[in-house]
Amino acid sequence: MPHDDTDIGGGRSRFPTTRLSAVLGAQSAETEVRARSFEALIAAYWKPVYKHVRIRWKKSNEDAKDLTQAFFLRAMEKDFFDSYDREKGRFRTFLRTCLDRFVSNEEKSEKRLKRGGGGIVLPLDFDGAEAELQSSPPCGDPERFFDAEWVRTLFGLAIEALRAECASRGKEAHFRLFARHDLADSGSGRPTYAALAAEFGLKTTDVTNYLAFARGEFRRLLLATLRDLTAGDEEYRREARLLLGAEPEDPS
Amino acid sequence: MSGGPMLDDEVVRHLKGVVDLPDLSGTRYRLLRRLGQGGMGTVYLAEDEDLGREVALKVLFLLDAAGEAARHLLAEARLLARLEHPNIVPIHDVGTLPDGRVFYVMTYVRGKRLDAWWAGTPSRPVHLRLFQKICDAVEFANARGIVHRDLKPENVMVGPFGEALVMDWGVAKVRDASEAGGAVVGTPAYMAPEQARGDVQRIDARTDVYALGAILYYLLSGRPPYDASTGASVLEVISRRPPRPLREVDPAIPRPLQAICSRAMAREPRERYATAREISEDIDRFLDRLPVRAHRETPLERASRFVDRNRVLVYLVAAYLVMRAIVVMVTAR
Which residues, other chains included, contact A11 with Cβ-Cβ below 8 Å and sequence gap of 6+? Predict the structure, then answer.
């Protein structure tokens, strides 16, 4: 996966917990708050947006890239998200509705920005997103697919946050163990604790403890990311229920 | 901006399980294994290390950073601790995990969930007798001012001696109190219309009566009154119209049982049975082949029930009449 990424509006550090969530921050009058909020929203949504445009609107790879870029740039310029009302539903649904309206209008007016023609280009890893799309084709309706992709992105962001957290606290081995065990894909299989202990030169009980630490932090960071991407307690709770496995049981 | 590493569906499923696992450090419980998952939370088998016994530990999806729901649940648990009844599984303990989720601890019941038990027990009278035990438990609690509010087959276990054990007492109230604006969560197929509408003020013992009717519907037909696979729309349908009549689902279901079910599940609470005991009494009448309160019989039904109830007498009278007829015919020749 290419790693030519840069962050919009500064480094990876997130806001302190007392600040506005990114959803509310995107409606703020303060330029800096808005910029940071858009950064968080783009990080969480660009991949679901790109894949939604590819699947729901059946756009080519290049057109979907252009539309994704244009959507977020236009959202920033035209204050799309200012009209979000948390009383009327989830932000995620609102954003998807904005996106569909945007793509529909672009199709009608044929004024879509040509690739690179809009000046600013957001540094998004479209090749990686496209590879994911090819390796894991969507099934079901586009709305569910969008939601599932959002959850996938959220987990991805939490993993990146965990990597940074472990590095900053000198616990790289904890993250490596977590990645080796909990991020093992279906093809490679999940190693046993005994195998991990041999591989990392640890006792089995250490593997248990390291994994418990990493998982606890992962959970905390995932919920913090979620809190940042929801507008209030009610939406946060509902989304947390989705993330905390209100779905068929995990066989593991 | 990459949006994180590439995660396949299996990894995402596994990570959901990982974040769902409770951190029980700092408690007296040790996690043993996952037992199952419902609309409100996940149930684990755990060991109470102080008492050396296995318990069922339910972790709610509810996040409770302020500790308000845990305090509420604790107050409920104190109340529920007084519910000593052979058909009630009380809450032993409640607490909050380090991540803010609320958990509570119950007796670990070794038995079958009502739906699994139903599938292996085809006898209707046995179903109805078990249903009466559920009614007994609900009546006992309702009489003490406690409304369950989340009665459904998933919350009833059938023990090894055929005893009904009703679980998850009082949790629904905590859930309602903690969800802003009376938001409706959980399995909607067994909810009363007032509950589906989020009309918390109108919830009382008759809400449980409705759910008992819905459980009876399940026991008679093998299916819930509403198709729960489409969550939000079920709530809307419940609010608007009654479920499909039982005899449309299975014409072999006796009309009096259909009537008992319909009365228990009436749209308006005032049109339902006033108590769980009243439903149980009507079931008793049905089993004793007496007229039930919920159903006005036709003369044919009354005659049929008379025959059914006095089968031996009817057979004797019939045999006598046949014999008389034979005697008359022989004499006439």
Answer: none
